[in-house]
Amino acid sequence: MPSFDTNAAISTTLDKSKELAGILFKKFVNQAVDDTENFLRRSKDGVARAGLLYAEGKIDRDDFEDLVLGKKDLAEMHALKQTGLASATIDTFTNGVLQIFVDAAFAAVKF
Amino acid sequence: MPPLASAKSQTKSPTSKRSGAAKGNFQAGLQFYSLKSSAVALLLWLSFATACSTIATFDQVAYDKATGAKAEALALMDKATDSYGAHLKEIEAVSLTIDKAYEYDRGRALNTVTVQQWEVLRDPNRNLFGGFLRRWHDKGSLKVDYITEKKPDIAEAFDQITGLEIGKRKAN
Questions:
Q1: Chain A: nearest CA to B9, how far in angstroms?
Q2: Do B135 and B77 belong together in one domain?
Q3: What are the tens digits of pLDDT across the range A73-93?
Q4: Which residues in chain B touch residue A3, judged by CB atoms under 8 angstroms apart?
Q5: Which chain B residues touch A28 with a CB distance below 8 Å?
Q6: pLDDT tens, position by position, A10-32
Q7: Three-state secondary structure call for residue B111
Q8: B97 and B157 fall within a common domain
Q9: Parent domain of B20
Q10: Least confident window among A7-11, A55-59, A93-97
Q11: Structural domain contains residue B98
Q12: pLDDT band at B3 (very low <50, low <70, confident <90, very high)
């Protein structure tokens, strides 16, 4: 006669989901921080180079303003990417939990 | 009395067996019901979670269109030291490539973030590729130092789009 150990299935799902969340979100946060630090460094260097070109008369004021404002638009694109990647991480987590639950549910059925 | 008791026990025995069997059937029924409920709950959860995706999955075509557009845009930028009019056809061709990539992404479900990225990149009133073409048009030609400094920004803008595409979950 088949039986189903609901408590075991739920308990296993919760434990493994916590583990998955720890791995996925930690990885996401680390990558986001690295990515943002690199972006800020590149932006800072770019603005410094643009300032130098303007000071040397190699570009005009309009060019300089465009280069600086371009960094602002790039920052927005960067932020949008991080927003999208956060959503993708949440989806990966949701699907991971479902897979864990399916595996735990099959393991909990006793024939 | 004993015969009666015996008779009673004889008459009770089949009833007891029937009762035991009924109880067993009832328990089996309950277990089957519990199993069935769990399966139904699981199916409901699966459908709910599947319906709750928050962003589109990875799309190779969208990725290829964005990388192709990046290469064409950067190659065109090198020509901006010449007059805008001399490269009108190339400008239109690259603009069309970018429009196609944008429209492709616009047609995908749950793809709002990527579409917003394209809009920032294409907008002539902002300061990425759309703004670059507007400035080229308005000024007639652009300085080589400005172009050299601007190209990495435009390349990075495209990279933000392809970087998000790569980061999307692969479809099952």
A1: 31
A2: yes
A3: 999 999 999 999 999 999 999
A4: 31, 35
A5: none
A6: 889 999 999 999 999 999 999 99
A7: coil
A8: yes
A9: 1-52
A10: A7-11
A11: yes
A12: very low
